[in-house]
Structures are given as C-alpha cells and as structure tokens.
Amino acid sequence: MKIFIGADHGGFELKKKVMTALEGQGYEVIDEGAHVYDKLDDFPDFGKTVAEGVSKEPADSRGILLCRSGVGMDIVANRFKGVRSVLALSPEHVARARHDEDVNVLSVASDFSSEADVMKIIDAFLHTPFAAEEKYSRRLKKISELE
What CATH number has the domain bearing residue 54? Predict the structure, then answer.
C-alpha cells in the first residue's frame, strides 16, 4: 500500500518519525512535504498534495496529514473527490472510522497527541478493515453522490 504523507511546520518533526516507522514496516511512503522546516508555510499546500494523491488512487493508497490542530488539514483533505478524512481522537475512534466510513486519510493533531499515541492511531488506521456491510456501503454511496 502506498502512503502519502504531508505536514506543515507544526507536524514537521513528527512526520519524519512517522515516515521512518512506516518505511521500517515496508510501506511505500510518498513524502509530499514540507521538505524543510519553515514556520511560515501553509497547511493547505500539503493537505492538497496528499489528498490529490489519494484521490487518484483511492483503492490502493492512504494519506496521513500532520499539523498542530489537525483541523485545517482535515478540512482541506475532505474537499477532494473520493477522499474521506478523519481527525484522529484516539486509536479506537480511528478504528471505528475505518470500519464504518472506510476513511482513507488521517489527520493528526501534533499539539494534542503524544508520539506514542500517534503511532497507535496510525496502526489502527492502517490495520482496521472496512466492514463493507450494506448499511455502510449505502451511506458511502450517498456521500459520493454529494461530490
């Protein structure tokens, strides 16, 4: 599975750690920036490139976005066709979102999550399957019709 990852200055250091962990697990990780720390960069730039990548390959990829609150990245990602982003609150929350809504982008709040918790959240994101029950599929179809 291909994982697109992006972070602004607020998630820059955490992104490097997450990338190292994911690459160590054998994932193909596509770094969509920031590539250098710039305290004046703008989260929409990185949210856009990650969401575009997932939008082009929704069945074979996932996205991870990191910024201070996670909110802005989540808003940006959800603007793209085929992208269903969730703002992570806990591993259990993300597992439910994967199971019920088949989310394919994870937005992480670096200011409100420890590194250990982020790794648990990402694990839940990558290893929880979509239930694909009729009621969940029906709801996703309705969401797709809004795009």
Answer: 3.40.1400.10
